[in-house]
Design brief:
Blueprint: E1 32-35, E2 40-43, E3 49-52, E4 58-65, E5 85-91
């Protein structure tokens, strides 16, 4: 996360509908891995999502956990509440720099 110091100049996807999301879905296609044997969704370490807002500002986002309370051991049958734990940096001045 700390090593991402600048947003790229181009390459952003615009999400115009739920049928074509800007952030890829599916296990190991974006930010998460799904284990079909345990039914656990876990964040892929090191994945940082760069966002360009509608008004031309930038943010970087890293999803740390999909489960409420950020548990280290996950049982999807007892940890039923899904709340993202994430960290982010928002750059309000419109520059692409995150430092």
């Amino acid at each position: 996360f700390a090593s991402v110091k600048e947003a790229p100049e181009s390459g952003y996807q615009i999400e115009e509908s739920t049928s074509k999301p800007a952030i890829p879905t599916g296990s190991d296609n974006g930010w998460y891995h799904y284990d079909p044997t345990t039914h656990v969704v876990s964040a892929v370490p090191g994945v940082v999502i760069i966002i360009r807002t509608a008004d031309g500002k930038y943010a970087k986002l890293q999803i740390l956990n999909y489960w409420k309370g950020n548990p280290q051991v996950i049982d999807p049958y007892t940890n039923k509440e899904r709340y993202y734990t994430f960290r982010y940096v928002y750059q309000p001045d419109g520059s692409r720099k995150f430092e």
